[in-house]
Every structure is written in structure tokens, then in C-alpha cells.
Amino acid sequence: MIVSWYRQIFIFIFISGVIVVVGIDTEIKTLFASLFFPIFLFAILALREMRFDMEITHNLPTRAAVGDELELKIHVKITRGMGMINLDLPTFREMELLEGSNVHIIYKGKKIEEREYTYKVRTTRRGIFPYSDIEIEYSPILGRNNYKRLTQKVESSIIVVPPVKILKKSQFQIRSRLVKPRYAVTRLGPPTNEFERIREFVSGDSFKSINWKSTARVSYNNKIMVNQYEREGLKNFIFLLDTSNPMSRGVSYENPFEYSISLILSGANYLASKNYNVGYWPLSETVLKPLEYVMPSSGGDVVNRIRDKLLRVEYRRTLQKGYLLDPVLTRIIMETQPQITLITSLNARNREQIMNTYSRLLKLGAGVVLVNILAESIVAKRIEPRIIGIFTGKGKDITNTPKSTVTWDPVTQNLGKAAYEIAIRGGW
After folding, report:
1. 138 plus 216 within the same structural domain
2. Which domain holds residue 224?
3. For residue 22, is it within any domain?
4. Average pLDDT rounded to a whole number, residues 190-200
5. How far is CA 347 from the centre of its chain?
6. Is residue 395's pLDDT more than 80?
7. Which of 122, 382, 389, 393 could form a cystine bridge with 96, CB 3.0-4.6 A?
8. Are residues 225 and 289 in the same domain?
9. CB within 8 A of 203, min separation 6: which ones?
10. Contact partners, residue 161, CB within 8 Å, separation at least 6
11. For the chain, how many structural domains are there in total?
12. Does residue 367 register a pLDDT over 60?
């Protein structure tokens, strides 16, 4: 468009020059007036392009989950100016552009220009991401005297929450063949009025809990069926997250660290639904601030608080010293003897520190399940997918981990299966 305008201006100047030459040859003085036509044209263009006025409004989403597809809408209105405008519209980190474009070129003529741009993106990673500012570059027709480079601030951010898998209680109902209660009543807590399931009578069950209708239906098997109700959560579960650099192996949105966050949030959501006390701590080399961890508690609010911490946590680039068990965490372990799920991705750089932490937790009286997330398959998925399956068994042999270790290959095994193995070892 700009080239077309320059071509037209050149034609006007050329025609005016020809008329002037003809006027000189014919001595017609009135033709000399055409010499002022280009000057008059340049003056009009200069006045029109001197003032540049633009209005931009936007409708940007502020909350989404990982993997959501979002539509961003921008409305642009240009009332003054004449020339070419380059627009760089808002985006945010850790997103994938699916449809449309956030970069546009507008040619502003003598009329008011009004445009609406829509482009679709997909979120790829959890976190709180500010939108980028709108960059505007205005290039007038007659040169760079009135050239402008402007920035319009976008005071908005988007919260991308981690993915949560809804774990069903039926997945973790582990039946015992022993003719006795699986856990002591004092450990499980008193029963509530919330019905859980119908099961076979075992020694220690109250006769008041017998379901006579179900018993009559299976009377030919000489079985007595009872109603089982949810019990109050007196058990304590704590998730410990390794934040060392080996957790980042892979890409920014797919690595052991991101899989760990999804596992913690899914597990916390399930345990909180059973009224258990749930807590969260990131492993660190220093004493943590209260805003960095979540004390064990029950109820739906604890899941929201854990989610808030997981939105902001990031892995550390280096691990200079061994992990320091937070004093508050140490006191809670000694008082309540919780079941701890320690989530890591073992390799030569962090194995010694993780094993030392594992031993200290056991000495303090905690039950510990070590979850080792294999990063090799995640890397192989990006490089050579045909070798993905060889790492699961190999990882177990190389790391020489304790018997309570759950090795999770997230490429070949979904989160539900990994949670089932953790539930068996961790008493979910």
C-alpha cells in the first residue's frame, strides 16, 4: 500500500514537471502554476500524518487450566494519521498459537480504520503469566520525521492451573483376606454419616451396621453384608517435592517437575475428599518461609492452598548442599508420624541427597513412599519415540531404590495407575 502511494506521488510530480516544461516552450504562464501542485499535495499529507490517534480495547481471559484453548479478542480503532501501522498484540509465556496471528500490519488512509482481531492459543504450562504489552510502530507516508514507536501497557495476567485427575475411591479399595479390621478404629477415626459402600462382615464390625437386605440376597453363600461409612480424617499425609535441577529434564511444560505437580494436586484432592489431613512442603537447602508450605489440615480449602503454592513453585538450577528438613516439618513428623510421599526424579546429581533425606524421614518416625519419575522416557519422546519402553525396568536397576519406591514412567503409564501403586504403599 505504501509503495502504491509513493508511485502515485511520483506520477503527480512527473505530470506537473511535464506541464511546466510545456509552459516554458509555449510561454503560457498559467501552466507554471502546476509547479505548486506537488508542494500543495505534500503539505496536505504532512498535516494529515502529523497527528496519530489510536484506540485499542481487549478482552483477555484471566484463568484457565493447562491444555485449555483460549480465544483472545482485540479491537483497534485508528482515527488520525496516514501511513503504515505495525501491531504486536498481547501474548504470554508458555502458550502455543493455534489459529490466527498476533502480529498485523494496517494501512491508514484518509478514512477511519476499525478492525477486530481474534486469535486462538493453547496453554501449555501452569503458572501466573502477565500478558505482554501492545507494541505499536507508526510509519507515515512522507518519511521518518513523524515516525512513532509506542507501547500500550496491558495490566492483566492469566492464571493457568495444573491439570487434576479426579481419583475415584473405588480405585483404592484394597480388600484384605484377614479376618480382622484392616486398621484400628483409633487410627481411622470415628465413622461419619456419609455412606461409602457395602462390604462383607469382618470381625470387629458393629451388628448395627448389618445390611439385612443385601445379606438376604447372598444368603446362599452364608455371607453377612454390612454398610461401611466414611471415617473422619485423623491420618496425616504430606507431599514432599524435590526441587533440584534433575526434575527439569525435558521441556519446560513436560518434565518430571510438571508431572509431580499434577500428581500432588490430584492426590491432595483425593485425600482431602476423605477428610484426611493433607500438607505440602518443597524440599529446600534453607529454612522455608510460612508462605512456601502448607500445614497438614483437612477440608476443601487445603486443596486450594496447595494449588496456590504449586502455581508459584519452580525448580532450582543448582543443589550446592544437602536438603535441610524444615524445623516445622520435623516437629510435625515427630508429633503425628505422618505418611510422606517424596516425589523426585533420581539421577547421579541428586540421588545421594534424596537417599539421605529418605533415611532422616524414617528415623523421625514417618512412613515414606519414594516416587521416582523417569525423565528418560520424556526426553526420548522428543528425540526418538521408538526407545521409550526400555527405560522403566532399567531405571529400577540403576537407581537401587528402597522397596517402598514407586517408579513412574509418565509416558507409558497414566497418573491413575501411578496413584494406585502409591495408595497401596502409602495407605491412601
Report:
1. no
2. 175-231
3. no
4. 72
5. 25
6. no
7. 122
8. no
9. 179, 180, 181
10. 63, 64, 65, 66, 126, 307, 311
11. 3
12. yes
